[in-house]
Amino acid sequence: MFARSCGAPGLPCSRPRLRVGGSCRRRLLGAPDRSTRASAARGRSHTDAGVTSVARLMHPARPVLLDLAGRADLREAAHDWKDRIDIRTARTDDRPADALLIRPDAHVAWAAPLDEPAGAATPALREALSSWFGSPN
Fold first, then answer.
1. Which long-range contacts (CB under 8 A, 24 or more apart) does 124-127 make?
2. Do residues 112 and 71 lie in contact, with contact meaning Cβ atoms separated by under 8 Å?
3. Which residues of 101-121 are buried (b: 16+ CB within 10 A; e: fewer)?
4. How far is the C-alpha of 129 from the C-alpha of 127, rounded, in Å?
5. Model confidence over 65-115: pLDDT tens digits?
6. How far apart are CA 61 and CA 66, in angstroms?
7. pLDDT, tens only, 7-22
8. Cα torsion for 60, 63, 67, 72, to the nearest 10°?
9. Phi and psi (nearest 5°) for 114?
10. CA-to-CA distance for 1 and 53, rounded, in angstroms?
11. How far apart are CA 58 and CA 63, in angstroms?
């Protein structure tokens, strides 16, 4: 039987190990994005699409790169996939990461740790985008 918490030493993880920036971000990856659900439950968020909920951003059933820290480097890195993903910025008081790549089923496919340098975050994002959504255009 797989452990529910992937942090338990010696127990296998039921989710695939997804590497981000050289380490496994099991707390966020492969799980439903509870931060977006919490934001949606609390009401509206300030995004580049206006005042809305993150759940509303997911309505088109497209992947979303949600930039929570004003990371132009990450938005630019994702630009080659703009035909396959929506790129959004948002403000929140309690951000779990600098950016989240959220699959259409609301599971986090990739997360940029808080204040991760561009030299680590940008290549990791491009790798995640290629893995999940194919080669860039």
1. 124/19, 124/20, 124/21, 124/22, 125/65, 125/74, 125/77, 125/78, 125/99, 125/101, 126/77
2. yes
3. bbbeebebbbbbbeebeeeeb
4. 5
5. 999 999 999 999 999 999 999 999 988 878 889 999 999 998 999 999 999
6. 14
7. 334 433 333 333 334 3
8. -110
9. -55, 130
10. 36
11. 8
How far is residue 135's CA from residue 137's CA, in Å, rounded to a whole number?
Answer: 7
Which residue is listed with tokens 């403000």? 91
Write out the two tokens for 14: 């039921």
pLDDT > 70 fraction of the chain, expressed in percent and rounded: 65
Question: Where do we find the tokens 């938005």?
Answer: 75
Say how far apart CA 14 and CA 130 lie, in whole Å.
Answer: 23
**Of 64, 35, 61, 34, nearest in space to 49 by CA:** 64
Between CA 93 and CA 29, with CA 21 as vertex, the angle to 5 degrees is 60
Full-model pTM: 0.69
Quote the tokens at residue 26.
């099991």
